[in-house]
Every structure is written in structure tokens, then in C-alpha cells.
Amino acid sequence: MSGAALGLEIVFVFFLALFLLHRYGDFKKQHRLVIVATLLAWYLCFLIVFILPLDVSTTIYNRCKLAVNSSPAESNDSYVTLAPSKQKCFKPWSYIPDGIMPIFWRVVYWTSQFLTWILLPFMQSYARSGGFSITGKIKTALIENAIYYGTYLLIFGAFLIYVAVNPNFNLQWNQLQTIGIAAANTWGLFLLVLLLGYGLVEIPRSHWNGAKRGYLLMKTYFKAAKLMTEKADAEENLEDIMEEVRKVNESIKYNHPLRKCVDTILKKCPTEYQERMGRNMDDYEDFDERRNSYPNEKSLAKLHKQVIYSVQRHRRTQVQWQILLEQAFYLEDVAKNESSATRQFIHTFHSQEPENKIIQYFYTPTVEWYWECLLRPWFYRVLAVVLATFSVIVVWSECTFFSTKPVLSLFAVFIQLAEKTYNYIYIEMACFLTIFFLSICVYSTVFRIRVFNYYYLASHHQTDAYSLLFSGMLFCRLTPPLCLNFLGLTHMDATISHKNTQPTAYTSIMGSMRVLSFIADGFYIYYPMLVVILCIATYFSLGTRCLNLLGFQQFMGDSEMTSDLIDEGKELIRREKRKRQRQEEGENRRREWKERYGNRDDSTRSRAVHTDQKESSFSETNANRPLSKYTRSNGRTERDRIELLQDAEPLDFNADSVNDDPLESDSGR
């Protein structure tokens, strides 16, 4: 069982990262290198979070063995017995043999650092480039990242020169490596505290507000009004870009050297625009003979980049609008069914996707009514209280984890109590819940945050390649300081506990932070206390109020602008609801008409075919009779009838003028 736990977690975390990436990315349309790089970044970060509790339990067992070796003891394969106290030091079920964890952490850490500082920034520029060849995209990516890479090389080169010239510094390679790790962790810790302060308050509050049906419905109306504005803006932007593409398509003919670039741009356009702007093959004039100004390859690359962005944004707003409509309709159904006397959940619209028969069997309308109208609000309230309790414990521990005598950090108290009895299951569960809650607070903020249209993680396969790669960069930069902060909260880091004990394998690859004492004894200890101020600011929604003052509409209950947007969103939802009801009524009428009169139409059609066959046979038997002039007149009459039918204009159909009684309409016909 020593390596079974490690292997199971490696496999489980891989499928977890794959599931999340499938939810946000699009495996069919996005480049494979983008998918692989993002999956690797997410996988490594999630793997660190899940494997670290095993490292803690293994370290506690190794400390026990060191204590045994310093005193007379009896040992065997499964446990070690201390002679003085007769206390058994059991080997944990998830014990990882010596030498495996340091190699594992070294590979995982340096791979993630290579991704976040070198590969992913380059792939961001590559994916966002509008070049038409691999060489052109690589060239654009190198130019865009030259300043980015050059700044780091300049700082690092200046530092090396200063160390080489100054005789007071005698730094070795391990110490330089530690300084680089400390610099990366300092940057990550700075961002980590900002995201953690927001998540510790917003996650419990969002679950508490999730129990308020009226609050959720009003917020959905607010989102509908904002999304409609964004949707209209995306459609207008797409129309403008397609107009530019149309002009380029008309100016660059089939024999122009840049025609292949235009064809590449047309392939990225939506299907309806591709059909409208077919290749201009009817003009065979040589492009050199016409004195028109043609765009160059650089301007076409810029247009290609704009087409990719506008099409992605238009598709995303369309999908999000449909999802928001379904959510609004469902919340309105919940509000209506709360006062239902039958205690059965009734939907206004049937689901457009086929439901699973097993779910339909167990999740009946009665069960759905009890869950949505009675149990779910209370479940969300209880969950919000539990999450708020965890948040208070985290804030207290972040402010007191530097105190070792007495130990004030609650997480350190829990781990030390379990360490005395060597209850490894409890140790691993406590460590996992702690770091999992910290990860949820940080990672959920990364998934929620939106920087205009520059960075935005949208579910239902609507996230662009640039945002996926940027999220991988953030995860790789946030996870190492998050794990070091967790080890500090539990006093498993020797830098915090000030004990001469065996460190964990994770902290051993980080090196001793004593090389930079002002970071180890100053920034790492006192900067996390800033989380208290950030939590207070988040609780009173100071950031939301500032954004609202700057003109970015945010959902605030006491704002007049919010009330106007809620009313606008309510009217939009009502309009879409009436539109869908009319569509369903029209489909039902057509279905009923087909069921009632489908057989009659078939019989009428068969009788007409039989009559035509009889007439054709009669004309064949009388073909040799001397009635040619009558035959010509009949043929002329038939041709006149056909021309009248072809010239006839179709009647305008008005749904309101349709008679609901099919018998009267049939008699009228």
C-alpha cells in the first residue's frame, strides 16, 4: 500500500483536471498544444494540493523513527515501539518510501515554473497572433515577449554582476537557486493574499445568498440586462469586422499572392458570412493592371486577429444568453411552485435536452419540489455557516501562525494533537481539508475574476485560448506559495516553528529561506496579516462600490442604476418567455394538424396519383385518333395553367389569423 495512495491520487487528479478543462475549453476547435499546455499546468497544480498531505504524514512518521533511533526501541516492519513509554509508532497506510518524494517534488515544481515563466507566456502570444504560418506566429510571439524576457534577464544579470564584484558575498549555486525560488514565491504570495481575502468572504456569502430565491432572481435580471448590452456590442463589432473582410475579399482577386491569406480569414468567419462572401472567381483581370491600393500581409494579420476575437466573443455571448435564459425561467418556476398545493414541481418549458431515464425515475416532480422549495435553501444556509467558520479559523491562523509559544494557530494545534497519537488518517484528512479550502478560496477567485475581455474563464466550452493559458500561468505561480503558507499555518515549516526537526520533502527542495532573512522573518510572516483588511473590505463591498463609481455597473441593492437594470432585465426575460411560448404553441398546432389530417392528405394524394395514371393511359389509347387540333388546344391550356401557378405570389401567413377550429378551415377551403 506504500505507493498505491500516490498512484491513485495521480490518476484521480488527472481526470479532475481533464474534466474541468473540458468544461471551460473546447477540445474540437482549440489548438492541441494549447489544450496540452493548459492541462499540464492545471494538473501539476492540483497534484501538489492533493499530494502534500501524504508528504506531511510521511514526514511525521520519519520524525518518529528519528526519535526511536535516539532511544532504545524494538522495531519491526509495521511499527516501532518506544521503550520508555511503550508507545507504538505505526507506519501510515499511505507511507511513501524515502527518496521518492524529493524527486517527485523537484520534477513537479520545476516543470510548473518552466511553464509559468517561459512556455505559457510564449504560447499566449502565439495563440493570439494573427499570423498565417507557424514561422510568422513564432516571430510575432518572440517580438511581443522580448521585453518580458529581457526585463528578467537584465535584473538577473545585474544581480549576478553585483554578487561577483562584491567580496562580502560568497553565494553558491544552491543559494542562488533559493534566491530565485524566494523571488517567485514572494510575487505569488503577494497575489495569493489578495485573492484569498476575497474568497474567504465571498464564498460563504454567495452560498448564503443562494438560499434567497428573490435575491437570485433579481441578480439574474441584472445579469440579463448587462449581457444583452454585451451581446449587442459583440454583434455590432462582428458586423463591422465582417464588412472589412468583405471589402478585402472583393479587392484581392483569385490570382493575388495574398489570396491564400484571405481564404484563411474567410474560414474563420461564421458560416452565413462565408456563404455571403464566396470567393470572387468571376473576375479574371490581372491584379497588377488595376491601380488599386491592396492591403499588405501585416494588415491582413491584424484583420485575422480581429476576426478570431470577434467571432469568439459573439459565440460566447450567444451561448451565455441561452444559459441565462434557462436559469431565469427556472428561478421563476421555483418562485411559482413555492405556493403550490399539489407539492409537485411544474416547469413552464420542457427541457430541450433528453433527460436520463434513471434521473427521471428517482428525481420525480414531488422530489424536485421538496428539494428546490424546502430542502435546498436550508442546505445552503448550513453550508454557508460551515464555510464561514472555516474562514474565521483561517483568518485567525494567518494572524497568529508565527507564535510558537504558545501555539495560537488552530491548524497547528489540530496537527500537533494528532501527531502525539500518530493518527495518520486524522492528520491527512485535517491537512487535506485545510489546503483544499484554501485552494477553493484562491482558485474560485481566479475562475470568477474578469479583466474586461482580456481575461475571462467562461464555462460551456466558451473560454478562448489566451484565457486558458493565462489561468495556467496564475495557477503555477499561486500554488507553491499557497503550499508554503499551509505548511506555515500547521507549523510543519522549520522556518516558522524554529525547531531542529526533519522538514517535509516539499520544503527541502525550496532550500533554506535564511539566505534572505528579511523575506523569511519579515515578509512571509507579517504580509499574510493583510488578509484581515481585505476580508473587511470584501465584506462591505468596497471594491464593488469603487467599480460602480467608476462607471462599471455592479449589482448593489441600494443603487438606482441597479434597480433600472433589474427592471430592464425583467422585461427582456418576459419578452423572451413570450417568444418561446409562441414558438411552442405554433409547434403544437402543427403537430396536431399533422396528426389529424396527415392520413387524409395521404389518401388525397394517392387518389390524385391514381387519376393521373388513368388520364395518361386514356391519352395513350387515343393517341392515333385524328383530333390533333384539340390535343394542341389542351396542351396550350395546360401550359397556361402551369405558368399561372408559377407566377402566383405566396399568401402572407399571419399566426393570429389562423382559425383554431380545423373543421371550419377545411369547409372554407
Summarize the structure.
By secondary structure, the chain is mainly α. The chain is built from 22 helices and five strands. Strand 2 (79-82) and strand 3 (88-90) form a beta hairpin.
Mean pLDDT: 81
From the N-terminal CA to the C-terminal CA, the straight-line distance is 82 Å
Largest sheet report: 3 strands, antiparallel
Count of DSSP helices? 22
Order of helices and strands: HHEEEHHHHHHHHHHHEEHHHHHHHHH
Q: What is the strand tally?
A: 5
Helix proportion range: over 70%
Strand order of the largest sheet: 1-2-3
Taking Cα atoms only, what radius of gyration do you get, to the nearest Å?
A: 35 Å
The total tally of domains equals 2
Low-confidence stretches: 73-86, 618-669
Approximate strand percentage? under 5%
Transmembrane segments: 6-21, 33-52, 103-126, 146-165, 177-201, 378-396, 425-446, 466-489, 523-542
Keywords: Coiled coil, Membrane, Transmembrane, Transmembrane helix
Membrane topology: Multi-pass membrane protein
Biased composition (Basic and acidic residues): 582-617, 635-644
Protein architecture, described:
- With 669 residues, this protein is an all-alpha fold.
- It has 2 domains: 1-69 and 89-215 and 357-561, no CATH class; 216-277 and 297-339.
- The chain is 72% helix and 2% strand.
- It is built from 22 helices and 5 strands.
- It starts with a helix and ends with a helix.
